[in-house]
Amino acid sequence: MQRRPRRNRKSESVRNLVEETSVSVKDLIFPLFLIEGQKKQVEVNSMPGIYRYSIDLMLKEIEECMKLGIMSFDVFPAYPESLKDQIASESYNPETFYLKALKEIKRKFPELCLMSDVAMDPYSSDGHDGLVKNGKILNDETLAILGKMSLAQAEVGVDILGPSDMMDGRVGYIRNLLDENGFKETSIMSYTAKYASAFYGPFRDALDSAPKFGDKKTYQMNPANSREALIEADLDLEEGADFLMVKPALSYLDIIKLLSDNYPVPIAAYNVSGEYSMVKAAAANDWLDSERAMLEILLSIKRSGAKIILTYFAKEFARLQK
Ligand SMILES: NCC(=O)CCC(=O)O
Ligand SMILES: [Mg+2]
């Protein structure tokens, strides 16, 4: 035998030398769930270790995470049914608790990178990402609502807007509106290839945002398709997206690779709630080691070409690195 690949695995120091990929806390965005009120911290049943916070406790949580080196956060609001309507009007009400909280976060921690989601579902009485008429999700009529929501979020100081709705043309629509209103520095991380996935289940529990009828297959992508992601990526890039995101991550590592091989912008991957909960559920049964599974998952997402990972594991990962 002339070639013995095992020689490069013979000790930890050699293994470290030949290691091709690594995950840093700098790569991570930590999604956080916000609820209205004060002194509230409620664990999400289907996501052990993940909580919904009122703003006062969220500020504490952010501070703690920043001490661990996490500098980027994506905040999602959970709205009560009573504040939802068909046109998601609460999403751009300047007095709404979500927008006030975002402003407060940026005021207290101007150095962090704050991301927010642009989509109707948390505010929609239909639980869909677009305006509903006669059981259909309207595309162009939805853009105007997404536009108002985007401006309201840019206004309170959000650094990166994350349109997660999958309506056609929304990146360009939002980009134009931001530029016209003086928000040239507000970035867009487009949910470019967002698949109609079973792995969002726990997230919809966390926000009580499940669709009230039907499913999201007329706007989110079919898990069977990969080449279609190239069309979505072409459009988003042309329309001014600063980052392209693939979601979910684990069943879509090939899509992450496809976009990272073909597009020069940073690629992000959303390691979604169901991917987190699967690990936690198995670990609770002692069926696998949660820490090792987490590290392997994050590494695989990096290895496939994502620079950025949105993950509920962020704090746990950061703690391990300390
Ligand atoms: N727009 C954000 C999400 O839908 C997150 C899904 C998840 O974590 O399951
Ligand atoms: Mg698109």
UniProtKB/TrEMBL annotation:
Protein family per UniProt = Belongs to the ALAD family.
Instruction: State the organism named in the record.
Output: Algoriphagus lacus
| A Pfam entry, by short name | ALAD
GO terms for cellular component: cytosol
- Quaternary state and interactors: Homooctamer.
Q: Which GO terms describe its biological process?
A: protoporphyrinogen IX biosynthetic process
* InterPro entries for this protein: ALAD, ALAD_AS, Aldolase_TIM
**GO: which molecular function terms?**
porphobilinogen synthase activity; zinc ion binding
Its recorded reaction(s) are: 2 5-aminolevulinate = porphobilinogen + 2 H2O + H(+)
Question: Which residues are recorded as binding Mg(2+)?
Answer: 232
Class of enzymatic activity (EC top level): lyase
Enzyme Commission (EC) number: 4.2.1.24
Pathway given in the UniProt record: Porphyrin-containing compound metabolism; protoporphyrin-IX biosynthesis; coproporphyrinogen-III from 5-aminolevulinate: step 1/4
Which controlled-vocabulary keywords does the entry list? Heme biosynthesis, Lyase, Magnesium, Metal-binding, Porphyrin biosynthesis
Full protein name: Delta-aminolevulinic acid dehydratase
